[in-house]
TrEMBL record:
Protein name, per record: V-type proton ATPase subunit a
The entry's keywords: Coiled coil, Hydrogen ion transport, Ion transport, Membrane, Transmembrane, Transmembrane helix, Transport
Tree of life domain: Eukaryota
Localization: Membrane
A GO term, aspect molecular function: ATPase binding
Lineage, highest ranks first: Eukaryota, Viridiplantae, Streptophyta, Embryophyta, Tracheophyta
UniProt record, GO biological process: vacuolar acidification
Homology family: Belongs to the V-ATPase 116 kDa subunit family.
Key word Membrane present: yes
Amino acid sequence: MVRFIEDLPPMDLMRSEMMTFVQLIIPAESAHRAITYLGQLGFLQFRDLNAEKSPFQRTFVNQVKRCAEMSRKLRFFKDQINKAGLMSSHPVLQSDIYLEDLEIQLAEHEHELIEMNSNSEKLRQSYNELLEFKIVLQKACGFLVSNHGKAISEERELEENVFSNENYVETPFLFEQEVRPAPSNQSGLRFISGIICKSKVLRFERMLFRATRGNMLFNQAPADEQIVDPISAEMVEKTVFVVFFSGEQARTKILKICDAFGANCYPVPEDISKQRQITSEVSSRLTDLEATLDAGIRHRNKALAFVEAHFSEWMDMVRREKAVYDTLNMLNFDVTKKCLVGEGWCPIFAKTQIQEALQRATFDSNSQIGIIFHSMDALESPPTYFRTNSFTSPYQEIVDAYGVARYQEANPAVYTTIIFPFLFAVMFGDWGHGICLLLGALILIARQSKLSTQRLGSFMEMLFGGRYVLLLMSLFSIYCGLIYNEFFSVPFHIFGASAYKCRDNSCRDAHTTGLVKYREPYPFGVDPSWRGSRSELAFLNSLKMKMSILFGVVHMNLGIILSYFNACFFSNSLDIRYQFVPQMIFLNCLFGYLSLLIIVKWCTGSQADLYHVMIYMFLSPFDNLGENQLFWGQRPLQVVLLLWALIAVPWMLFPKPFILKKLHNERFQGRTYGMLNSSEVDLELEPDSARQHREEFNFSEVFVHQMIHSIEFVLGSVSNTASYLRLWALSLAHSELSTVFYEKVLLLAWGYDNLVIRLVGLTVFAFATAFILLMMETLSAFLHALRLHWVEFQNKFYHGDGYKFRPFSFASLTEDEN
């Protein structure tokens, strides 16, 4: 058996790739080119030999800073391109350019853009001021003419009613100083005109009123044009205002309030001829500024278009250079300061490619000394690396989400590829819903070339990455739906006529006293006549519950069998004799026996109560079974199985810790001195690690660990078997929900002879099917299938305490925004 297993061809996914620990000694003149070629290859994971140093103490820190600065400039260019709204053009391939030349080129472009932005802001600010001045001139003229007439008409009333007080500076009425003689310039009606943001007008007016104690007249009018904010480049609505007041102190307060609210004040002459002259001059200057601004924008867009055409190439080059120098900082200089020493992990199959890349780097850099590349021993466990494709990658991600596989241990993803979508379909089985999922999966697969190049949201990215998982889930859902004979909860006579018929022609008692079987059983799946019958729920519950137990026992047995293959691979005979064998005995003597009883009952049509059989197998193993006996010799078989199950518990618990203690004592007997830390020391490798350190054997710790493991398996065998009943529960819930929506929504609405009610019922049924059955139920079944794999299946054999192989690769930098 062992020889047969060894002769089987290796599988890429069955166990992780074999890794080797390597050392590189690279001459300084070819180091950059060698690391670049290794990054293009992507098969070497470097180890940081300068972990104790801070980033600022490393050798190539200045080069990393330069790359970071260039990356900042490129991000600045990207922001400017987005603000300008330039469409992305086809990238222009530039001839080979060195990093130093690119650094100079980027600095020139940044300086040019900053200068153009500064000039553009100044011009835009001047343009906005002139535009505001023009708007103020147009609006304020009307205010001045109308208020001048109002002032003359009210002059007599003010002369008669205003109380004159020479010592009081601020008068209680606006036009008092206008109509009476004043000894200084502070007398007379004055005004301030300007423009302010529309959102601030109400607060601005209230503040003016309070500051002047009501001694002001505030006129406003909305501006006809929106003005561009030079900082945010957004259009802002503004309002023109004219404030009439009296007194120098009032003028000072109003100007301070204008400054606080960001209002721009502009002088408006009272003479109409001067107003027209100034308006003409402002319009002429606005025309010139518009032409200048347009020319500046065209020149700026031309410079940005050149940058945008080379942006992808430049960003890719900067990312690669920064990654190369970051990797070089992980290497050590030797004592002569002429060579760099690096260490890392690589797959054994890639050693030849790595050597070829290093030879090419030596040749291209014209180095007189070749690069030394050799394998060496390592104390730490190697990383885990699986070669996956677009189909197997999502299943490997499902397993890695629980824990990365230990180096070279059996990979559950091989079995998850089929078992995971099948267990999902057992809970989701409906071939109508399965067809809906299938259409969604086929759309994602058909558009994968387009979607793979787009930036998707988190949900769509997850859905697109798992498109092949969705495909298999939908296919298995259609298969299980055909077995359950459910199409949106409606049964169909797909595979022939039913095996049952009514007792009479009227068929009045079909759903009360039952049907009569008159021909061979329905050839595939559940007979459609069960739908709506009196015993439908009892029959389907019994079928799905027993089926769930069978699937669970087979699934858990597969997990224990995989632990045997792990033990064989690592040459650990203790795990085979004292873990695999008692676990198989315990699980199958109890729940394997229950599965046998289920199959026998199905085949014989017996009415035996399996609950009674299993309970009294423990309580009264020697009592007569009576009508619950399914086959001859069942009672003595139960006694034997029960004894074997009881023996398996101490078999798991006691032998292994004592044998490990004995082996430890024999291994280190007489070795009272410390062991040399050398690769020549004969260290026996334990199966669970690449190389064991010399540690003190703690028997109590080993015994407690084994006891916990044994108790967990014994109790877990019961709880895990019960956990598989979720297959029955979710399948029943999905079927009943689908039935409720079909009968209580669609059929109920269809019973009315009203088109509107029928359309409403159809709409509600469609939304309930899409959002509840196809989204929520899909997510629920997915999570429960995930739980069955992570807990019930993988805890039988999977350690999941490894770490991923993360090679230095330029391909992994493409999605990094740096």
